[in-house]
Amino acid sequence: MKPLFFFFTILLFSTSLLPEPKQALQVEELFLGNQEAVLSKIEKLSKEDSQELVTKVRKQARTDYPQIDRFYFLISHLEEINAIEKEQARLKSVLWVFGLGFLLFSGFVVLLILRINRLSLEVKQLISED
């Protein structure tokens, strides 16, 4: 009797501890749902789920609009160009930061060299006076 009770207890707790299966985001939910709710669901998607969702959206759109692949290609290409321009602007600002940092560091090194040179001259004068 005890093993049977133990088995049912483990079975009961193991089913309650299992994670719930994820509900796949449907294409209709994307188009007809609340935009904020849809965006929050999209942000939680993994890479594989997002690729699957893109495939579903393209299939759905292809039935309604046969030329959708051309528009999709155009939009993705334009978004890539926009992303490249933004990245170039970021890199340009990072370049300015590195340039200013290098200039400040070079100025500090020159100041140290001048001070060391001046101190060495003072030490030579003190030695020559004695």
Strand residue content:
under 5%
**With helices defined by DSSP (H or I, 4 residues minimum), what is the helix count?**
5
Mean pLDDT: 82
Q: From the alpha-carbon coordinates, what is the Rg to the nearest angstrom?
A: 34 Å
Question: What is the molecular shape?
Answer: elongated
Question: Pairing-aware structural class of the strands and helices?
Answer: mainly alpha
Quick summary:
The chain is built from five helices and no strands. The chain has 130 residues and is mainly α.
What does this molecule look like?
- Helices cover about 85% and strands about 0% of the residues.
- By secondary structure, it is mainly alpha-helical.
- The longest helix is centred in the C-terminal third of the chain and has 62 residues, at about 70-130.
- The protein starts with a helix and ends with a helix.
Provide keyphrases for this structure.
130 residues; elongated; 5 helices; mainly alpha; 0% strand
Topology:
Blueprint: H1 2-17, H2 27-32, H3 35-43, H4 47-64, H5 68-129
